[in-house]
User: Which sequence fits this backbone?
């Protein structure tokens, strides 16, 4: 768009020429600050909803209302959001979900919350988020994770309703955390029990079910934090993943590991841990090398114990915020050899409690006894190494065995 086009648009903008005006607007390619200024000026004075609806995608995509400043989203220009309040449902229905929606929801929240069509707006937003998650699943993991976090933030903002609406929102929170739709949870008679667990855990931290926060913790999975407790849910294959686990000092000790028999659904509850921020280590070579070395030392120690850590990766370790114990009323510090945790010490490894600030493994799903690894080794090498995590296992396992061979050579040379 140039100044002549801008003048043309200004000339066309009258009630008699609105259809032609809209047709001209559709030709605009907003790709410079000058263009943004022009469209912004149109928006500020515009009253016709058809024009607003046409231009709103530029706002929601971040081109007009949002700009990047010091890695933070900040409002640009100051468009009066009230001009959209009477058309929220139409706008939400007309625009595809994208990562800037959270800014839009925050800006319009006072109008959404008290809107006469809140229930329909609520359902449309969730439906678009779910569709986005399904589209990105296993393809764009970072985008999927971001959308799940935005979904939890949205649900948490819906606090304060009563009656049927409150129940619907709480059901959706359960569904978001367990990644299972509410109808399936109801069919399996799990919705109310799971809701009870989430409420009880939140209450133990003086929080509510609306205080759960989606956080990244280990592998490519989200966990949900409330206060200093974290719940990790498994909605497929829980019987295999929450089974007997051999104790080692690097295990983040759980309060409970539970499987609902016959459903493939389970969950684990832990104390909160500070994960490694890979964005920081990627920019700092010294930090990255240090974290990789710490990760290798944990891998090596486990190997010495007769355990194999298959999904070894720096993103799978974290630092303890407090000593590695169970902090819950009427529970001992360390729980072994019981059904509640399914952690056993058949190898009679010496019990050690890692202290605050030490490194711990966040995800225990793929730590196996060496004898079991020998059984699955062929399948492991044919499939598991296709994903990025496999790189560290290959590198670390080779390094470990090379180190053992070198030590043996030195031993033989010294004694022979």
Assistant:
């Amino acid at each position: 768009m140039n100044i002549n086009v801008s003048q043309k648009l200004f000339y066309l903008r009258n009630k008699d020429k609105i259809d032609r005006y809209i047709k001209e607007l559709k030709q605009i390619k907003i790709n410079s600050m000058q263009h943004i200024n022009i469209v912004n000026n149109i928006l500020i004075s515009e009253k016709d909803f058809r024009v607003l609806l046409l231009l709103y995608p530029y706002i929601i995509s971040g081109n007009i209302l949002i700009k990047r400043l010091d890695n933070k989203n900040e409002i640009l220009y100051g468009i009066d959001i009230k001009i959209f309040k009477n058309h929220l449902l139409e706008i939400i229905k007309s625009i595809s979900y994208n990562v800037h929606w959270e800014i839009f929801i925050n800006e319009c929240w006072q109008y959404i919350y008290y809107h006469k069509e809140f229930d329909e707006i609520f359902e449309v937003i969730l439906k678009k988020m779910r569709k986005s998650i399904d589209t990105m699943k296993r393809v764009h993991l970072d985008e999927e994770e971001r959308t799940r976090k935005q979904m939890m933030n949205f649900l948490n903002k819906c606090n304060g309703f009563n009656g049927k609406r409150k129940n619907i929102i709480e059901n959706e929170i359960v569904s978001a955390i367990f990644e299972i739709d509410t109808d399936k949870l109801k069919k399996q008679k799990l919705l109310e029990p799971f809701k009870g667990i989430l409420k009880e855990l939140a209450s133990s931290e003086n929080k509510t079910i609306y205080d759960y926060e989606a956080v990244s913790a280990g592998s490519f999975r989200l966990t949900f934090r409330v206060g200093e407790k974290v719940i990790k849910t498994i909605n497929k294959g829980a019987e295999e993943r929450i089974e007997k686990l051999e104790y080692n000092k690097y295990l983040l000790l759980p309060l409970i590991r539970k499987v609902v028999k016959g459903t493939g659904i389970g969950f684990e509850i832990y104390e909160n841990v500070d994960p490694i921020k890979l964005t920081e280590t990627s920019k700092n070579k010294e930090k990255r090398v240090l974290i990789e070395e710490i990760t290798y030392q944990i891998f090596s120690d486990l190997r010495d114990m007769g355990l194999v850590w298959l999904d070894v990766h720096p993103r799978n370790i974290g630092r303890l915020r407090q000593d590695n114990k169970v902090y819950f009323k009427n529970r001992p510090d360390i729980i072994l050899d019981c059904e509640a945790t399914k952690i056993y010490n058949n190898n009679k490894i010496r019990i050690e409690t890692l202290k605050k600030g030490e490194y711990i493994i966040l995800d225990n799903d793929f730590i196996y006894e060496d004898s079991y690894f020998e059984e699955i080794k062929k399948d492991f090498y044919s499939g598991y190494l296709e994903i990025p995590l496999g790189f560290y296992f290959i590198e670390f396992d080779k390094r470990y065995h090379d180190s053992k061979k070198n030590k043996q050579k030195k031993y033989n040379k010294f004694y022979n």
Summary: Residues 58 and 64 are 6 Å apart (CA to CA). Residues 60-79 have pLDDT under 50 and may be disordered. The first strand starts at residue 66 and ends at 69.
